[in-house]
């Protein structure tokens, strides 16, 4: 009887019961998956900027391209604005970066269950590798843009898939995933910058980065200890059909005097969620998605609409160096807060959205009236911004995983991932006119 009970126990409990070694392997596996999922995107964008500059015959230094986004060109001497603006807002490329991801996150949760996880990971790794190759060997602008799109697809599909994947494991793997995604920006920026400073060309540097999709492949297929319930190469429908067939066989084999408890089927339905059920789950997720979206809206409004304009003249850092330090400190804050779930859990994520909104309003006023006396204060606010954003991300998905019904959890994790992308998209749309206004002063 004890053996039967252990066989039929919850897969998460079975997985946790196999020992601390398995937990450590899975934590490291999800950390690497988070790192690889975002790392390829960050590094490829920086390299795309370098190659586009070369194609357009612009004389930019390699250090400028080491920033975390493709879209930053600093110190345009032809601009007469007091803010030393770019002619084109950084938000313009942000929109090109985020729209493919947003499209995937909006529609994939309704059909992605038809694609087993093993196939998804292979697809994401192939798309990431293709983006590296396209941008590396691009001979025209459209090839580099296509590489950006492929990286965005890989990142978007990977994020919703790996978040859904966490429901098959101990809840602690969310800590590993969050920390890994936070580390991607910081490690990616330093590694790419270091290789460029060492004298390697952007093309060679990018080809070296092909190791990242390989690490993703190894982390998933060889490092993770996947439970038997995971639909690795078969669809959900196949899994459920096998379970139903097995249950029917057990009923046929049971004795006539035993009363099977099959009448509870309506209370605990099996099979994939219907479209109506998915819509119902989405309505219940808005209490999580809306605060997350607000945090990311205000966060990326700061990053893409204000950060470039927070420029201090006649100090020890150039405009380019100031921007790179802003980005580095932002990513450091994200890394620290995304790694903090083990020690600090914040149930009321809406508090973080309010604080981030106030942070954005303060920095907007600082840009307009130029009252901040030193760059060190901006450094503090940017670090604080990253801390709020990272904390909102990991706590949102932790409490979705904790408070959602077992049957809805996998879909909920995928569907809720649209929150940050929606916020980023709206931030890009708002940042465009704001940038234009300030640069016209």
Automatic annotation (TrEMBL):
Biological process, per Gene Ontology: lysosome organization; regulation of intracellular pH
UniProt keyword terms in alphabetical order: Lysosome, Membrane, Transmembrane, Transmembrane helix, Transport
Transmembrane segments: 28-48, 88-108, 120-142, 148-169, 181-200, 206-226, 349-371, 377-399, 411-432
Superkingdom assignment: Eukaryota
Main subcellular location: membrane
Gene Ontology CC entries for this record: endomembrane system; lysosomal membrane
Coiled-coil segments: none
Membrane disposition: Multi-pass membrane protein
Keyword RNA-binding listed: no
Keyword Membrane: yes
Pfam families according to UniProt: CLN3 (PF02487)
Disordered: annotated span: 252-272
Location relative to the cell: Endomembrane system; Lysosome membrane
PANTHER family: BATTENIN
Family statement drawn from the similarity comment of this UniProt entry: Belongs to the battenin family.
Protein name: Battenin
Species of the source: Oreochromis aureus (Israeli tilapia)
Gene (UniProt): CLN3
